[in-house]
Amino acid sequence: MSTPRLTALLAGAALLSLLSGPAAGADAGYFSLQDFPHVPKIDAHVHVHGDASHFMAQAIADDFSILTINVDYPDFPPIPDQERAAASLRARYPGRVAFIATFSVEDFQSPRWAQEAVAQLKEAVAQGAVGVKIWKNIGMALRDPDGRYVMPDDPRLEPVYRYVEAQHLVLLGHQAEPLNCWLPLKRMTVRSDREYFTEHPQYYMYRHPEMPSHETILAARDRMLAAHPDLQFEGVHLASLEWDVDRVAGFLERFPQARVDLAARLVHLEYQASRNRDKVRRFLIRYQDRVLYGSDDSYGPDDSKPEAVADVHRGWVEDWRFLVTGEVMHSPDFPAPFAGLRLPRTVVEKIYRTNAERLFPRAWAADAPRGRGPPASPGTPASGDSAPRVPGRSRP
């Protein structure tokens, strides 16, 4: 065989090897964008209501399990309805769906409030809940008759914390808001915050100087955590310290039992990456055992809009692109370009799956069949074509 022909054949074989299979020819220590639908993942922060068959079909197609979180949020269905929907979803998709309970602060001034709240949580746990959510209404909305805001370290909440701790559950805490909430609109770092606080002025603290400061709310949360050193705690939304990964690192150092999730705050990491990518990457690698992936996507109870499922899929793909690849990306939230973090495969597996499995060991039982559900029709498989970032997710 002639040398030129041999060279051509070898070159063709090399090209074929690069193009065949999602990870073929790629560095074995890293995932690629094409790996997205083939890697088991957990979205550990969604809010799914109603039947959600189309949503679950897409989750299965993208190889996602989910943790759907109930919230004492006036824009969501009543808490009993949320619980029934979550328990139903868990039963229909065993090994694929887990859920988090919550409690109502209605009648908080009643002497029986704590007893009734714990009873509410016991019922949810009996239905399969693996944790409890405490929402931002504590610290930002709930007030005593004298006008003082109820803070996360209020003694009246102690029975709830003691129950969570005694049952070896996880407390998910959403206290305060992004720091942008306390800034004028023109100083906010990302567009989605400007839009959210324009549309929800009741939570826009810059316009309410009479309300507690960001520091006051988080200090009360931290006093509660210091009083419960054995409590398993997850500070959702990067523990409301999203503007600086050094601040998140400080929180994790102070509270060894705490974790954080990325839900609705990945855009803030992207913004920081546009300024100092290596700093963000070092943070996620250093705290790789204590960070969980979450989108904060809200879905339902209407399950009839294919575009809603397509938006969820697109957001999942773009989050994967940022964490897994080194591609140059653009966000509608801010003008500067930024590069993906290209985290090592071992780090990605922890953030996307094993950290959630360790924190919630009963949530997605290894021996339970993973729900199959109907075939996926909405959305499309991940491709190498770049798509615009999905605008900011929900804010419950």
Describe this structure in words.
With 396 residues, the chain is an alpha/beta fold. The protein has one domain (31-359): Metal-dependent hydrolases (TIM Barrel). 39% of the residues lie in helices and 13% in strands. It has helices at 3-19, 53-61, 79-92, 113-126, 137-140, 158-166, 191-199, 214-227, 245-254, 266-286, 306-324, 345-359, and strands at 41-48, 64-69, 97-102, 131-134, 170-173, 232-235, 258-261, 291-292, 297-299, 328-331, 334-339. The strands form two sheets. A nine-stranded parallel β-sheet has the order 8-7-6-5-4-3-2-1-9. Helix 2 runs parallel beside helix 11 (306-324) and helix 4 packs parallel to helix 6.
Binned, the helix content reads 25-40%
Uncertain runs are: 1-25, 366-392
Structural classification: alpha/beta
> Number of folding domains?
1
Total count of helical runs of at least 4 residues: 12
Q: What Rg is obtained from the alpha carbons, in whole angstroms?
A: 22 Å
Total strands: 11
> Strand portion, in percent?
5-15%
Main β-sheet, in a few words? 9 strands, parallel
CATH C-level: Alpha Beta
Mean pLDDT: 89
The helix/strand order is: HEHEHEHEHHEHHEHEHEEHEEH
